[in-house]
């Protein structure tokens, strides 16, 4: 049974003011629009609240328009949090609110909710919304098992073995083989290149296996396969073993035992000395430079079977080149290395880092001049290599003086093309066998 307007009004207002308002409401329902305006003028003189004015206005509009059309109110899309990424975009929805006309006889006045009920409704809606968002967040942040596909395996293994660094190692080994005296043996050259590449892949894979907890803290290395969980540690170790064993076997029995011993020693030096030393002392940079200097020596020993002065010269060039290359690189990654817990010169001894880079830039000038004296190249080589050696020395001096990211980046990018060009010039000016035997200087 519908409640009369008198009963609802008596709940809202009491006393003399309540009776006055009830009288105005009754007249508003039964009177014509002209009388309504008259009542409104009289009500402005009395104590009528803003809520009652809104109610009277709604009654007037309802009586004039008996049938109201449906009103569509578009629902705004929720603002997505920048920390939550959603795969599918939600379409805009619309909520339809339908207002049906009602007869004045059955009209019931709405009860004004008190503040306690409003607070309860708001808190309930907030809790429901937070529960929905919590469910979505929990589903999105839930750990998911990454499945390994066969098509992705070559790329993952290439990143595990640092394929670009391995290519640099193989190229320096090839340069050492080509610069060695004697006839060029293609089969020995291929075996040396493949064996050195496999040994480098094994060393790099073991290095990443040991440094997973530390690589996860660095922006430069946080996307490595083991850090992201794309492959298991067992698979990484298995891959390293499958590269190390045949690589060392090829170098030992396919080339000569001296080259195989150098390859095995280099794997041990990189994985068991350089890798743990990176978190202990800045001496890791010098140990790492020895690791990078051994591949051209391996190329020389593969061609000659012995350690000659030319092998040490090539090793010295690679040894000195690595300091401006790596020190300039680490200068721009000081925050990353510090976050990862690595002990680098650029972090703990920045002045020494710049001095060492400059010293070895100048050392490249002296080593280039020693190449013809040791019978590796002709005297043309130090002359035509002088401009690029002077340029990298100039950039090393700028890096030493400015000590900023701009100078370090210039030195680093210069080192990327300096080494291939220097080795190419050495091959161009290589001293032939007849010239080396006669001992006559060539120009």
Considering the protein shown, what is the CATH homologous superfamily of the domain at 149-306?
UbiA prenyltransferase
Q: What fold name goes in the CATH topology slot of the domain at 149-306? A: Tetracycline Repressor, domain 2
β-strand number: 2
State the CATH class of the domain at 149-306.
Mainly Alpha
Low-confidence stretches at least 5 residues in length (pLDDT < 50)?
1-14, 67-73, 79-110, 438-443
Termini Cα gap: 118 Å
Helix/strand/pairing class, anyone?
A: mainly alpha
Rg, Cα atoms, Å: 41 Å
Strand coverage percent: under 5%
The spatial strand order of the largest sheet comes to 1-2
The helix count comes to: 21
* Broad shape: globular
What helical percentage do the residues reach? over 70%
What does the model show?
- This protein is mainly alpha-helical and 443 residues long.
- 70% of the residues lie in helices and 2% in strands.
- It is globular.
- It has helices at 5-12, 15-30, 33-45, 50-64, 115-140, 153-160, 163-179, 186-210, 212-215, 225-228, 233-255, 257-277, 284-304, 309-331, 334-340, 345-348, 350-373, 380-384, 386-402, 405-428, 433-438, and strands at residues 71-75, 93-97.
- It starts with a helix and ends in a 5-residue tail after the last helix.
- Helix 7 (163-179) packs parallel to helix 20.
- A two-stranded antiparallel sheet has the order 1-2.
- Among the domains are: 149-306, Tetracycline Repressor, domain 2; 308-431, Four Helix Bundle (Hemerythrin (Met), subunit A) (Up-down Bundle).
- The model is unreliable at 1-14, 67-73, 79-110 and 438-443 (pLDDT under 50).
- The longest helix has 26 residues, at 115-140.
- It is built from 21 helices and two strands.
- Pfam families: UbiA.
- This is Protoheme IX farnesyltransferase, mitochondrial.
- It catalyses: heme b + (2E,6E)-farnesyl diphosphate + H2O = Fe(II)-heme o + diphosphate.
């Amino acid at each position: 049974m519908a409640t009369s307007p008198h009963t609802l009004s008596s709940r809202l207002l009491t006393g003399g003011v309540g009776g006055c308002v009830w009288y105005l409401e009754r007249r508003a329902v039964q009177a014509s629009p002209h009388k309504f305006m008259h009542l409104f003028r009289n009500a402005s003189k009395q104590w009528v609240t803003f809520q009652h004015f809104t109610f009277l206005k709604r009654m007037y509009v309802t009586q004039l328009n008996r049938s109201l059309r449906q009103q569509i109110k578009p629902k705004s899309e929720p603002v997505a949090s920048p920390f939550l990424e959603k795969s599918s975009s939600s379409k805009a929805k619309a909520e339809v609110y339908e207002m049906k006309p009602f007869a004045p006889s059955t009209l019931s006045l709405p009860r004004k909710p008190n503040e306690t009920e409003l607070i309860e409704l708001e808190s309930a809606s907030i809790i429901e919304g937070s529960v929905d968002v919590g469910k979505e967040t929990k589903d999105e942040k839930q750990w998911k098992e990454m499945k390994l596909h066969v098509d992705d395996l070559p790329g993952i293994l290439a990143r595990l073995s640092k394929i670009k660094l391995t290519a640099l190692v193989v190229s320096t080994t090839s340069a050492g083989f080509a610069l060695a005296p004697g006839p060029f043996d293609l089969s020995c050259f291929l075996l040396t290149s493949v064996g050195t590449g496999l040994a480098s892949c094994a060393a790099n894979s073991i290095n990443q296996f040991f440094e997973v907890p530390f690589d996860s803290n660095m922006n430069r290395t946080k996307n490595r396969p083991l850090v992201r969980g794309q492959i298991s540690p067992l698979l990484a170790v298995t891959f390293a073993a499958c590269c190390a064993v045949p690589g060392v076997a090829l170098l030992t029995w396919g080339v000569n035992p001296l080259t195989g011993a150098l390859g095995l020693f280099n794997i041990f030096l990189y994985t068991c000395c350089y890798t743990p030393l990176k978190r202990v002392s800045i001496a890791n940079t010098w140990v790492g430079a020895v690791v990078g200097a051994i591949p051209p020596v391996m190329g020389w020993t593969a061609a000659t079977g012995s350690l000659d002065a030319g092998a040490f010269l090539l090793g010295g060039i690679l040894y000195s080149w690595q300091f401006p290359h790596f020190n300039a690189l680490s200068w721009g990654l000081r925050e990353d290395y510090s976050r990862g817990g690595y002990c680098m010169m650029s972090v703990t001894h920045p002045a020494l880092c710049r001095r060492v880079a400059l010293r070895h830039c100048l050392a490249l000038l002296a080593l280039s001049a020693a190449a013809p004296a040791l019978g590796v190249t002709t005297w043309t080589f130090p002359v035509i290599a002088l401009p690029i050696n002077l340029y990298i020395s100039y950039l090393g001096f700028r890096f030493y003086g400015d000590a900023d990211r701009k100078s370090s980046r210039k030195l680093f990018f210069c080192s990327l093309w300096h080494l291939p060009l220097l080795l190419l010039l050495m091959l161009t000016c290589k001293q032939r066998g007849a010239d080396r035997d006669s001992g006559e200087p060539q120009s």
